[in-house]
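Researcher: Please predict.
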Amino acid sequence: TNATIKLANVTRQSAEEVSSQMTAIWNNFAKAGDNLESYADKITALGAATASSSAEIAEGLQKFAATANTIGLSYDYATSALATVVAQTRQSADVVGTAFKTLFGRLESLKLGDTLEDGVQLKEYSQALKTVGVNIFAANGQLKDMDQILDELGSKWQTLDKNSQVALAQTVGGMRQYTQLIALMDNYDFFKKNLNVAQNAEGTLQKQQNIYAESWEAASKRVKAAWEELVHDLLDDKFFINFTNNLAKVIKFFDKIIENMGGLKGLLVQIAPIVTSLHFDKISQSLQSMALNAQLMVPGMSGKIESK
């Protein structure tokens, strides 16, 4: 809860949004003994170090977190790759995250023995990488983790001409998303810097939280929270319940009085003499004023008014 609230403060997102993002991250990357805040540290550090943001990285990770875990793409590599491509292309995290889901999903499908939609099988995929010196199989015959495959491909990428890069990217990434792989490989040095940031990000979230805590926004939220607590303490449910019950009794009391007087007509009969006696002088003065006005307005009325 503390990690979620801190990250929500830093990214200016709602706690609900951050909770959803961090749940996806935790479910797909966490191992025994991990601390959720360490995952938030890496997002926060990468957001500060690149042209992407913490919110973008967290949002994009949701798109391919499950696939990443299946093919051995670690959290550090996943966040660093996402931050690199978002920062360099300025495409939305949603677009890049979806592209990564397709790109990395190809290896996941091949691992399960499927033939890809463009007809590529594991043999073609493996052969395309092998021609540039990247073997996707370990000595025991098992597929290597994607972390290792990316590092090996990144080290060979700049030795290839543009045509070879495109052809390889289309086989590995697919015709729809190969440009995202090219963007990652073309900026692999930047990726490695981001990876170093992620691997040394411990405590970053707390530092950003401390900065936020000193801001006007945080101060205003504290005042609002204190005021709401004060109002809640002063005007609790019992106060309103008792007030409402007593008000109902008063209304019933007056209703009973009016009913005994014969309703509204009876009430008027009862209070009319009282009102007349209290305001008799004012009523008399008003009638005299009316008579004088009539005298001035209508000629010949003077004698009649005086006689009256």
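Model: The CA atoms of residues 77 and 283 lie 93 Å apart.
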